[in-house]
Design goal:
233 residues; Rossmann fold; SIR2/SIRT2 'Small Domain'; 2 domains; six-stranded parallel sheet; three-stranded antiparallel sheet; 19% strand; binds ligand BV8
Length: 233
C-alpha cells in the first residue's frame, strides 16, 4: 500500500535534452546515428569492442561540455525539502542529476563515469577514454568495459526499484519515450500498487494513456512548476 507521501521519480533522456545531450529516438538522436545492435548489446561489444568503446567515450567526453538544467536542479530542491521518501530512478547515464544536487538517485541503465570489469564485476570511477581490454585494477584481467546496461542485460537495482514502487503514493515519469522495458512498465506497476501517476514530457510517450495525468512541455519549465506545487502543498 502507498505511504502517505512516498515519491518515485523516473527520468529519461528528455530531462537532459535542454542541457545539450542528445536523446535517443528523436530524428537526429543517438539511435538515428547508430544502430542499437551496433553499439548497445553484448553481441556488439564482443563483435566490435573498439566501436562500442568509442561510442561511449564520445558520450563521456560530452559530459564536460554540458551543465544541469533547471529540471535537474528542481528535483534536487524537491529531494532536499520533501518530508517523505523520494527515490529518483534515472535511465540516463549522464551525471547531471548528481551535479544538479540529487543524492537519493540510482542509474538503472548504468553510468558513463564508471567502468565495470567483465571478469570480476568490480566497478570503478572512470573519466576520459576507456580503451578496449584495459586491465582491471582488482583482478588484473584485460576486461574493463563501459558500466552500461546493454539491451538484453538486466537493469541495475530492480528489487530496490520495485520495493519503492510498492510503497509509492505518487509515480512521476519525466522525459522518457516509454519505449524501453522494464522502465516503461513502472507506471503500470505503480498503479497496481495504488499510486497516482503523472507524466511530464515534451510529447505524449508510448505509455501516456496509462498515466492519471500527463503534462506536455519542456522539462525545464514543467519540472520546476511541478516541484513548486509539491513544496507548496
Ligand atoms: C532486459 C544504455 C531482461 C545506456 C539502454 C519486455 C520486458 C522486458 C524487456 C523487454 C520487453 N520487451 C522488450 C524487451 C527488451 C528490451 C526493450 O525494452 N526493448 C525495446 C526497444 C522494445 N529491454 C532490455 O533489453 C532491457 N533488459 O529487459 O533484460 C533480462 C531478463 C533476465 C536476465 C537478463 C536480462 C535493458 C534496457 C536497457 C538498454 N540500455 N541504454 C545508454 O546507452 O544510454 S536503453 C536507452 O533507452 C537509454 O537507457 C534510455 O534511457 C532508454 C530510454 O530512452 P529515453 O530515455 O526514453 O529516451 P528517448 O530518446 O527514447 O525519449 C526521450 C523522450 O524525452 C521523448 O519522449 C521526448 O519527447 C522527450 N523529450 C525530449 N526533449 C524533452 C523531452 N521531454 C521534456 N523536455 C524536453 N526538453
Amino acid at each position: 500500500m502507498p505511504d502517505s507521501n512516498a515519491l518515485v521519480i523516473l527520468t529519461g533522456a528528455g530531462i537532459s535534452a535542454e542541457s545539450g545531450l542528445e536523446t535517443f529516438r528523436s530524428e537526429d538522436g543517438l539511435w538515428a546515428q547508430h544502430r542499437i545492435e551496433d553499439v548497445c548489446t553484448p553481441q556488439a561489444l564482443a563483435r566490435d569492442p573498439a566501436l562500442v568503446h568509442r561510442f561511449y567515450d564520445m558520450r563521456r567526453a560530452a559530459l564536460d561540455r554540458v551543465e544541469p538544467n533547471p529540471a535537474h536542479e528542481a528535483l534536487a530542491r524537491l529531494e532536499a525539502h520533501w518530508p517523505g521518501e523520494l527515490l529518483l530512478v534515472t535511465q540516463n547515464v549522464d551525471d547531471l542529476h548528481e551535479r544538479g544536487g540529487s543524492r537519493n538517485l540510482l542509474h538503472m541503465h548504468g553510468a558513463l563515469n564508471s567502468a565495470l570489469c567483465a571478469a570480476c564485476d568490480h566497478r570503478l570511477p572512470w573519466t576520459g577514454p576507456l580503451p578496449p581490454a584495459a586491465a582491471c585494477p582488482t583482478c588484473g584481467a584485460p576486461a574493463l568495459r563501459p558500466d552500461i546496461v546493454f539491451f538484453g542485460e538486466m537493469p541495475y537495482q530492480m528489487a530496490r526499484i520495485e520495493a519503492a514502487l510498492a510503497r509509492a503514493d505518487l509515480f512521476v515519469s519525466i522525459g522518457t519515450s516509454g519505449a524501453v522495458y522494464p522502465a516503461a512498465g513502472f507506471v503500470r506497476m505503480a498503479q497496481a500498487y495504488g499510486a497516482r501517476t503523472l507524466e511530464l514530457n515534451l510529447e505524449p510517450s508510448e505509455g501516456s494513456a496509462w498515466f492519471d495525468e500527463s503534462r506536455l512541455g519542456p522539462a525545464s519549465q514543467l519540472v520546476p512548476a511541478w516541484v513548486g506545487e509539491m513544496l507548496a502543498s
